[in-house]
Write a structure and sequence with these properties.
363 residues; alpha/beta; Rossmann fold; 2 domains; two-stranded antiparallel ribbon; 13 helices; 10% strand
């Protein structure tokens, strides 16, 4: 008979081996390392979708047809382009709002190393209760909030900003237990990205989130190169540029550096997402994934006069038990998506898990 201590060692080793074999321990929130390890090559590799998911079937059917040279739906490898929005499409946007918007409150109200201007402090104190209570902001509050997303980081180098994002990723999500902001990725959608990349698709992120923020959030997680991550553009200056125009200024590498200017982001939403595709991809996608009207341009453009089979998918935040969903909005979104020919994805009905089964609502 085995000694108790040996039994403990045996079962500990068995448990570790089981977790490693399964890829992700879905009894807990998946760590970034576990998310990065997700590797879906065929339909049989999906773990986080319900077996009867219509979306999973549509995606698998599309891909299998696209990669089969004998299929009428074959798409040459160089034209297999898929674009994804980030917030609300494969990353949480409801706790209580987008990552960079919540980080603004942390920066202005909680960061002891930052001496925030009085106008930003006043703004943050006024609108934070509204944001956390899901109340609508006034038009002027929304404008000032958007401007604050860069104003609060004025003078930071891009590297310093990305380090700031990385640190904030280690804070806990609001309204969801056992989940850090850097782990709040929808595991089923991560599988879709992996599946497409493993089957010869060039996957791009086309987000309204700031591009520096987006790149840091997904760094090391997905098989997506930095130059395939598009987002709202930061505006930069140099520490010695002064009133010079960028095109006229000589950049002295010994005496100056590039910093965030504090000018508002160029918002990569709606039709601007199409402009990003033209300017930075150069080809029309055959697949597009989004979750809001901010993604409508990308979805419609993908379906418009496409020379190949194409499809648009729209994620519905309709899970109010495992996610901070909104059933009223989800119903309205589904009705509109159906009218436009977009395939809807129900988080409630199609996702076997979202972040891992130990992530629970706390409000």
């Amino acid at each position: 008979m085995l000694h108790k201590s040996l039994l403990k060692v045996f079962f500990a080793g068995f448990t570790a081996a089981f977790i490693a074999f399964s890829g992700v321990n879905d009894a807990n929130a998946a760590s970034r390392e576990e998310i990065a390890a997700i590797n879906v090559k065929s339909a049989a590799d999906f773990q986080f979708w319900n077996d009867n998911s219509p979306t999973k079937k549509k995606i698998v059917d599309f891909v299998e047809s696209a990669i089969n040279p004998n299929s009428p739906g074959f798409i040459p490898p160089e034209d297999r382009i898929a674009t994804f929005d980030m917030d609300g499409t494969f990353y949480c946007e409801t706790a209580p709002l987008y990552f960079q918007e919540v980080m603004f409150f942390h920066r202005v109200l909680e960061d002891k190393s930052y001496n925030a201007p009085e106008d930003l402090v006043k703004l943050a104190k006024t609108i934070r209760p509204k944001v956390y209570n899901k109340e609508k902001l006034t038009k002027e509050e929304s404008r000032q909030y958007f401007e604050g997303l860069t104003k609060a980081y004025k003078g930071m180098t891009p590297e310093e900003y990305r380090a700031y994002v990385r640190n904030f990723m280690d804070t806990n999500e609001t309204g969801l237990s056992n989940l850090k902001r850097g782990e709040a990725f929808y595991l089923p959608m991560v599988e879709v990205i992996s599946y497409l990349a493993n089957n010869g698709f060039d996957v791009y992120i086309d987000s309204a989130c700031g591009v520096l923020t987006t790149r840091e959030l997904v760094d090391g997680l997905f098989p997506i190169r930095y130059d395939r991550i598009l987002g709202s553009d930061f505006n930069f200056t140099s520490t010695n540029m002064g009133s010079d125009k960028p095109e006229n200024h000589f950049y002295d590498r010994f005496n100056e550096k590039i910093v965030i200017s504090g000018v508002p982001l160029t918002d990569n939403a709606k039709v601007r997402k199409i402009f990003s595709i033209y300017n930075q991809i150069g080809k029309k996608p055959v697949l597009a994934f989004g979750n809001s009207m901010g993604d409508s341009g990308m979805l419609e453009f993908t379906l418009q006069d496409n020379k190949y089979p194409s499809a648009a998918f729209y994620v519905l935040c309709d899970d109010v038990k495992r996610e901070l969903g909104n059933l009223t909005r989800a119903a309205s979104d589904k009705k509109f998506a159906d009218s436009r020919g977009w395939n809807t994805i129900s988080m409630r009905d199609e996702f076997k898990t979202i972040y891992g089964d130990n992530v629970k609502r706390t409000n």
